[in-house]
Design goal:
The protein is of the alpha+beta class. 20% of the residues lie in helices and 43% in strands. The chain has a 17-stranded mixed β-sheet that branches. It has a two-stranded antiparallel ribbon with strand order 9-10. The protein starts with a strand and ends with a helix. InterPro entries: DAP_epimerase_AS (IPR018510), DAP_epimerase_DapF (IPR001653). It catalyses: (2S,6S)-2,6-diaminopimelate = meso-2,6-diaminopimelate. This is Diaminopimelate epimerase.
């Protein structure tokens, strides 16, 4: 079983080509749990599987979080899989990718830089405060695509200097907060300059902070653009793993289109020989 290991601004993934491997879909959640375990296998934030298109796209992207749960879509993952698709002859420099949350279009800017149109915001609640241990935190809520990828957007002062453990516990509490029936990715952010943000995302399915989150950055910029706090054009978002750029087109009180641009990295290519996985399968 051949694989690629890729990352987009530190958000890392294992990529399998099911057009060649013909793996039963029901086995993919267990494969994700096994292969994404960092100390026992390859290690990654998620597993991405290329499969045959069903809606006229170039190919279909199946995404599984490291805990085996299905992800509706992953922005940095989609950028990486667009590079995979281009370099493996599945699509041209502009491509159409089918995801659980809807169609995503991607464009190759250069060898490592890729830009995608994220799923459009389908739900936006700018004022959605959440209470944790008797403290109320300012919060907004965004869903991208349909079914929507849920994101809580939370301002946090001095985010770079925040205590990691305290922030993690707060992220976990908001992620499971009853205000979000299907859970939420929690995006803490701080505005540090003109159209410049710093962000940390606690991701559901990973249940910890990741080095970057593409749909998270898109959700944060959606909120701040509608609030008039950023321009929406070329907004730079720094995360632990690097910098992503978001362009949000505002039309009156909604975001009509949302684009994510950032780097990709092919870390390694190889053959899966994980003996624990072979026993499980």
């Amino acid at each position: 079983m051949r694989f690629w290991k890729m990352n987009g601004a530190g958000n890392d993934f294992i990529v399998l080509n099911n057009l060649e491997e013909h793996l039963p879909v029901e086995q993919l959640p267990q494969m994700a749990r096994t292969l994404c375990e960092r100390h026992l296998s390859i290690g990654a934030d998620g597993l991405m599987v290329v499969d045959a298109p069903t809606q006229g796209g170039d190919y279909r992207m199946l995404f599984y979080n490291s805990d085996g749960s299905i992800g509706e879509m992953c922005g940095n993952g989609a950028r990486c899989i667009c590079r995979y698709g281009f370099e493996n002859g599945l699509a041209g420099e502009t491509q159409t990718v089918e995801t659980t949350a809807g169609i995503v279009t991607g464009k190759r800017i250069d060898r490592r830089l890729y830009r995608i149109r994220l799923n459009d915001p389908t739900t936006v609640r700018l004022d959605c405060p959440v209470a944790v241990d008797g403290v109320t935190y300012a919060c907004s809520y965004v869903e991208l695509g349909d079914p929507g990828i849920p994101h809580a957007v939370v301002p946090y002062a001095n985010l770079r200097q925040a205590d990691e453990n305290e922030l993690r516990e707060l992220g976990r509490a908001i992620r499971w907060n009853k205000a979000f029936p299907k859970g939420a990715n929690v995006n803490f952010y701080e505005i540090v300059g003109e159209d410049l943000l710093f962000e940390r995302t606690f991701e559901r399915g990973v249940e910890d902070f990741t080095y970057a989150c593409g749909t998270g950055t898109g959700s944060v910029v959606t909120v701040l653009t509608l609030q008039g706090k950023v321009s929406g054009q070329g907004v730079q978002v720094d995360m632990t793993g690097g910098r992503l750029v978001i362009d949000a087109e505002r039309v009156h009180a909604r975001i009509a289109s949302l684009y994510l641009t950032g780097p990709t990295n092919v870390v390694c290519k190889g053959e899966v020989t994980d003996e624990d996985l072979m026993i499980q399968m």
